[in-house]
Amino acid sequence: MKTSSKHNLCLFGAGGHGRVLAAQIERFLHASVVFCDRSLYGQSVAGIHVLYKEAADIDSERICISIGDNSLREELHNLLLPKISPPIIINSDYNFAASIGAGSQILAGSVINTMSVIGSSVIVNTNAVVEHDCTVGDFCHIAPGALLGGGVSLGSSVFVGTGAVILPGLHVQSGTIIGAGSVVTKDILDPGIWVGSPARPHLKNSQRL
What we know:
- The chain is of the alpha/beta class.
- The chain has two domains: 9-83, Rossmann fold, CATH 3.40.50; 86-196, Hexapeptide repeat proteins (UDP N-Acetylglucosamine Acyltransferase, domain 1).
- It has two helices and 24 strands.
- The protein has helices at residues 16-28, 70-79, and strands spanning 9-12, 34-36, 44-45, 48-52, 62-65, 88-89, 93-94, 99-100, 105-106, 111-112, 117-118, 123-124, 129-130, 135-136, 141-142, 147-148, 153-154, 159-160, 165-166, 171-172, 177-178, 183-184, 193-195, 200-201.
- It has an eight-stranded mixed β-sheet with strand order 6-9-12-15-18-21-23-24, with no helix packed on it. The protein has a six-stranded parallel β-sheet with strand order 7-10-13-16-19-22, with no helix packed on it.
- A hairpin with a 2-residue loop joins strand 3 and strand 4 (48-52).
- The termini are far apart.
C-alpha cells in the first residue's frame, strides 16, 4: 500500500481514469498520491491508499479531479477550487507556447502543439493530439487517440471519443459528445451526440455513447 507522509496530492476518484492517472504519476513523475473515493474508502486500489471518504475530509495540499465524466468533474472542481492542483503533465509532447489551466491532466503519449489553449480540469488522454492554435474549453475530455486538427475550437464540457477526428479550423459547441471513431467535417453548433464519418446527429441524443 503506497502512501506519502505528506500526501501532497490527492486524486478525487479511484475509478478507471483515476487509476490510470495515478499509475502514470507514479511511473513518470515519481510522485506518490492518495485517493478520495466514498465507495472505496479504506481500501487499497492498485496499491494506492483510498485515504479520504468525502471532499471535506481532504487535507492534502493539492487535489486533482480524476473522474472522466465532464459534468461531475466540473461540479467537484468548483467545489474544491482553492485546492485544485496545477496542471499535471505526464510524459507528453507539450509545447511551452501552449497554455494549460489548473486541474488539467495531460496523459502519457499525448501531444499539445504550439499556441493551443487548454482550459481548466481538461483531460487530454493517452496518445490524444491537440494540434497548433486549438482552443479547448474548461472540463472537456479528449479520449485516447483522438485528434484535433489545427485551429479547432471546443466549447466547455465537450467529450471527444476514442480515435475521433475533428478537422482543422472547426468549432464544436459546448456540451457536445462526439462518438468514438467519428470524423467531424463541419462546425457543430447544436450540442448533442454526433457519430459517424462524417459525423451526424445521433437519433437518440438522450443516451450517451
